[in-house]
Specification:
Layout lengths: L3 H28 L16 H7 L6 H11 L19 H12 L2
Helix pairs in contact: 1-4, 3-4
Length: 104
């Protein structure tokens, strides 16, 4: 296959991923996540990169983190508690946020 025919689909995919990441980051801002978490730095809670790294090979991580965001928790990353975000943030949006974090 001619390499020039691959450029357009690859560029389109990159734009989609970039646009989706931007939408997910906007959702995180609107949901209040950035008050305690940075993408690559600890604020009150761990950075999302640290979370993604910790759970990289954990097949149960997605469900665990969805539950943690919904119900809150404490003790995993230190003494500061994670407040519950359900029902203030919908289940669908919580799933999108967790998927975004785990994909970092």
């Amino acid at each position: 296959m001619n390499a020039k025919w691959l450029i357009a689909p690859i560029a389109a995919a990159a734009l989609f991923v970039s646009g989706q990441a931007s939408a997910d980051l906007d959702l995180a801002k609107k949901s209040g996540c950035l008050a305690c978490h940075g993408i690559d730095k600890k604020i009150v809670g761990p950075s999302w990169h640290d979370i993604a790294t910790k759970y990289k090979d954990d097949t149960g991580a997605r469900d665990l983190l969805i539950d943690k965001v919904k119900k809150g928790g404490k003790g995993t990353w230190g003494p500061a508690p994670m407040p519950p975000f359900s029902p203030r943030v919908s289940d669908v949006n919580i799933e999108k946020l967790v998927d975004f974090i785990l994909a970092l």
